[in-house]
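check these tokens.
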Amino acid sequence: MNLLEPAILTIITAATPLLLAAIGELVTERSGVLNLGVEGMMAMGAACAFAIAITTDSTALGIAGGVAAGTALAALFALMTLGFAANQVACGLALTILGLGLSGLIGADFVGARRDPMPKLEIPGLSDIPFIGPVLFGQDAFVYASVVLVAGVWWFLFHTRAGLTLRAVGDNHVSAHALGSKVLKVRLAAVLFGGACSGLAGAYLSLAYTPFWVKGMTAGRGWIALAIVVFSSWLPWRLMVGAYLFGSVSILQLYAQGAGIGLPSQLMSSLPYLATILVLVAIAGTRARARAPACLGVPFVPDR
């Protein structure tokens, strides 16, 4: 138990940014839009959140700044792909490059600065329960927010009329448009939501996970979040399982290195990304891949 508890706690912290970014991308892709700029939006969220938190000495304003940064980049992506019907893959890759570059510029003056991590939400009585208390009732607000987001997105997609409309737009935007759905408005809302979640994931990295800023601190997590969406077959609860699975791989390779397993450290560090590739290869051509929204990545230009 003495070894299991810290391992689970670190897995939760490693999985949370993946879950936050992936749930936003899931909603975006459900609407038929493929945004490959998750890594860039996360990086911008991390840089802006930390810069604002240090400048204002307010974690809440830092979080708001991170969400706003991710949303702003998503709005730029929406302008190109929805407004001008540009290629979504090219725009997503450009967004990642832009986000990584801007985040380095914004965070340049804050390299080396440190800030106390976001405090845990201790629940009197429950948090003191051995093992269960720290794991379930001693997390920070980001962890609980990620779980609430998963539950909220599941309910929205499968138990509301608006969620049905969003799924219809992603599966057949021509028919949805013919039935009176505002395809571009639905997709715009989904893209902005995805950007906000990516910005929130970035804010978690710089304000809670590692409370300092360093260029490239997202370390490919945005790409892993994209893979998790495919791994989950575009279903929220499976996405949560996938995020914690990939988080486990990221942390367990560190424990393996600490245990002195006779493998090169570079190989151990690459395990999360190797697992991502293997999962995508295994899913290709399966029924899980067939559940992808039919209009994913296809631009929509309404008849005039």
